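User: Let's play a game. I give you a shape written as C-alpha cells, and you guess the letters that built it. Ready? Here's round one.
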C-alpha cells in the first residue's frame, strides 16, 4: 500500500512539474502580492510599500512546494502638487521550488504604472511588466513512471525522458488596467471610509518557451486575471469589511476565489501626538472554487501588517493530501495613507 501511494505521489509530482500547459504560482492572499495580481497596482493604494511572502504547499506529497516572494513599489511624483496623474514603479521577485526533483523557477520583473486622476476620488491606471525568468531542475534523484517495473522503482531502467537542458532562461511581459475609488474624509467615530479596486491584467503576452523537454511548441500560456476588492467601513462602529473576488484563467484552466475579511479597530492611534499607534485585527474566510477553503488572520500595527493563511484542500487530491493544503504568510511595510483604515485621527483626509 505504501508503495502504491508513493507511486501515486510521484505521478502527481510529474504531472505538476511537466504539464504541457504550465501553471503560474499563486498566493491565497492575492492582494498582498500585488504585482503578481496586476502590474497596474504599482503605486495605486500607497505612496510606498514593501512586502515579503512565503508559501508552503502540499507537505503531504513528497517535498512541499515552497514559494518565496518579495516586492517594493512606490510613486515617483508623490510630493508634486497640481499633478494630473501618478507615475509609479516597482520591482517584484519570486522563487518557486517544486517537489523532490527541485523544479525551481526564479523571476525578477520591473513594473511601471501611470494612474490618471479622474476626480478627487477616482483614478484610472495602466501598468506594464517586463521580467526575466530562469528555470532549473535536478534529475539525479528523480523516479519516473517509466521506471516502475510492476513491483517497485528500478533505477536501472531508462526514464525515457529527453531533456534539452537542465536549466533555461526567458523574457516575460505583462500588462494591466486598474480603476480605484477612494472615499475621502470622515470623522473617527463615523468610520465611513471606502476604497474599491477593479482590475484586469494579462501575463506572459510573449508566450515564452517553457519546457525542459526536447520538444518544440511548449510555451508558457497567457494568464488572464480579473478582480474586484474593497475596504468598507461599517458606519458608527469599529468594524471593517474587505470583500474580494478573484478570477484567473490560463490554458483552459481557471481559478475563482471569493470571500471576505472582517476587521476590528482595536485602537485608532493618536495622529496628533503619535504616542499611541493604530492597531487593527482581521479574520477572514475565502473559498477557491472546487479546490480549497482558506482561513485568514491578519494584524496591522501602525505601518506594519502581518498576515497568515491556511488552505484546507477540498479537491480530488484529498485522498493523498488528507485535506492538508498550504500555509502562507506575509509581512508588509506601508509608508503612507493608502493602506486601509489606519491613522484615523480627528479627521483623515485621504489623498492620491
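Assistant: Ready! My guess for every position:
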Amino acid at each position: 500500500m505504501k508503495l502504491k501511494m508513493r507511486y501515486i505521489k510521484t505521478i502527481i509530482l510529474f504531472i505538476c512539474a511537466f504539464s504541457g500547459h504550465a501553471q503560474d504560482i499563486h498566493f491565497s492572499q492575492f492582494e498582498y502580492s500585488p504585482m503578481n495580481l496586476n502590474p497596474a497596482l504599482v503605486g495605486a493604494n500607497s505612496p510606498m510599500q514593501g512586502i515579503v511572502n512565503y508559501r508552503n504547499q502540499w507537505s503531504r506529497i513528497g517535498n512541499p512546494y515552497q514559494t518565496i516572494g518579495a516586492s517594493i513599489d512606490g510613486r515617483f511624483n508623490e510630493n508634486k502638487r497640481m499633478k494630473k496623474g501618478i507615475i509609479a514603479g516597482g520591482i517584484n521577485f519570486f522563487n518557486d521550488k517544486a517537489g523532490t526533483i527541485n523544479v525551481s523557477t526564479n523571476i525578477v520583473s520591473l513594473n511601471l504604472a501611470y494612474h490618471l486622476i479622474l476626480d478627487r476620488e477616482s483614478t484610472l491606471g495602466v501598468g506594464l511588466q517586463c521580467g526575466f525568468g530562469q528555470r532549473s531542475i535536478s534529475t539525479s534523484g528523480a523516479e519516473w513512471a517509466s521506471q516502475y517495473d510492476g513491483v517497485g522503482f528500478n533505477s536501472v531502467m531508462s526514464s525515457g525522458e529527453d531533456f534539452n537542458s537542465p536549466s533555461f532562461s526567458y523574457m516575460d511581459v505583462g500588462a494591466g488596467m486598474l480603476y480605484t475609488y477612494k472615499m475621502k474624509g470622515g470623522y473617527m467615530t463615523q468610520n465611513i471610509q471606502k476604497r474599491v479596486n477593479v482590475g484586469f491584467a494579462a501575463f506572459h503576452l510573449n508566450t515564452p518557451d517553457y519546457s525542459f523537454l526536447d520538444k518544440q511548441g511548449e510555451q508558457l500560456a497567457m494568464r488572464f486575471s480579473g478582480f474586484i476588492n474593497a475596504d468598507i467601513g461599517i458606519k458608527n462602529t469599529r468594524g471593517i469589511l474587505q470583500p474580494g473576488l478573484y478570477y484567473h484563467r490560463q490554458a483552459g484552466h481557471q481559478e475563482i476565489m471569493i470571500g471576505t475579511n472582517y476587521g476590528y479597530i482595536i485602537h485608532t492611534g493618536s495622529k496628533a501626538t503619535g504616542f499611541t499607534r493604530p492597531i487593527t485585527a482581521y479574520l477572514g474566510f475565502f473559498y477557491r472554487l472546487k479546490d480549497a477553503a482558506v482561513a485568514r488572520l491578519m494584524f496591522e500595527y501602525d505601518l506594519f501588517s502581518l498576515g497568515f493563511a491556511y488552505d484546507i484542500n477540498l479537491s480530488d487530491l484529498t485522498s493523498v493530501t488528507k485535506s492538508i493544503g498550504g500555509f502562507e504568510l506575509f509581512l508588509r511595510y506601508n509608508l503612507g495613507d493608502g493602506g486601509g483604515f489606519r491613522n484615523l485621527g480627528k479627521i483623515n483626509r485621504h489623498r492620491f
